Task: structure prediction
Amino acid sequence: MGIQGALYSGVSGMSVNSTSMEVIGNNIANSNTYGYKSSRTLFADALSSEVSSSSGQSQVGSGALLSSVDSLFGQGSFESTSSATDLAIKGDSFFVVRDPNIDDNKTFTRSGAFRVQDGNLTNPEGYIVQGYEYNYDATGDPVVNDMQSTFGDIELEIGQDHPDTTSTATLESVSVDSDGVVTGKYTDGSLADLFCVQIAKFDNPSGLTKLGSSMFSESRSSGDAILGVTGGPGTAGGVNELGGTIYSSTLEMSNVDLAQEFVKMITTQRGFQANSKIITTTDELLNEVINLKR
Result:
């Protein structure tokens, strides 16, 4: 490959280190974003070329390549809030939300900043939280440990009627327990379990496609979503029990470690500088070769 090969090695090193700096910058920018999961860059050596040596054939590398940019789904710390519909998951599951403008779609998020809006439990982007509705008999009494096996929108609106059709009470407020059960409190003081928040797991969450706003979609790499509930509430119809805990009045913060990101920034900067030095030094060597003709 000769002297010129060193130029391309230096260029490849600068390229991968600049990509790494982009990832670091994005992590730092999102250090206060709820539900954000940090990323990392992985490098790999480029294809080596063979050269002749006194011991036979040897190999010389030709620079570096970007192997992948991985998402790290480690647990973020929790922050307490005053809103009962702010939810956080302890575990490796995701909340399931739906774009109201697209039929039969699922999007996944770790950011549980939900609110009751327009008759539904939604996130700030208007995506509707999905859940399983509890069954009630003809008289309005809840069927113990019975939940519909099909999921749908969590429909909530302050002032809606009581499930017991003989009652004139209306919904006053809602709460969510550690199993994700959404309970309504009515104007007559009564309580009724209305929904159970749906969660999802993936065989390879690092393969999820980022959509922005702390939301993800399935991909071939992530595999299909495994849908279910935490496992606490009684279910019917074979709803998957996925484990984990849901905390109300809590939000999961970003899992970015600022100290680690600043260390990465320093090493990436030095790596970029070192590779730029390769280019300037190789240019000086080429200049010496050209000057041989004089």
